[in-house]
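Data deposition worksheet. Section B asks for the primary sequence of the deposited chain exactly as it was used as input, without tags or linkers unless they were present during the calculation. Section C holds the resulting structure in token form. Section D is free text for depositor observations; keep each observation to a single sentence. Incomplete worksheets are returned to the depositor.
Section A, Depositor: J.P.
Section B:
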Amino acid sequence: MSIIPHRSNKRAEPIKAEEFGSHVAKVIDAIQAGSFQPALEACSHFVERGVNDNFIQRKTAGGVKWALRKRRYKHPMLRDTLRLLNSVARHQTTVDSIKDVEDRKLERGTIVPYASVHNYGGVRMVQREYMDVPEKYLEACDTIIADYGLDLIFKV
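Section C:
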């Protein structure tokens, strides 16, 4: 009896049934030891797009509209200087950006002093959550990571 993997860019070699257990162990090792950094770097673009969408649409990632302002301003909401937007929603990082992509970690954030009070709200500030990623972008990341994991598996 032979088991042939369902996906491969090259012609699959049959795995003998008696070798299946050791092959599975190699696959598990490949996934556990493999770096997902390239996949997470690709995902960072989708995270940035998602946060940018929140600013443009003035909504949370879940589609809830941000609270209206008390006064009228010439500039769009949370975009007076663009410092906050540029620090979290652009691939080119700024001095205010936090971007850390490692083997198994993607971190994106900002050190802009007023960022937290806008995202979470405060005593005199209504919450306008921008630092979350809409579902369609998370699904794109799921696909990227899953495909990358499959590539690691089929290199075994």
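Section D:
The chain has a mean pLDDT of 88.
Residues 117 and 123 are 9 Å apart (CA to CA).
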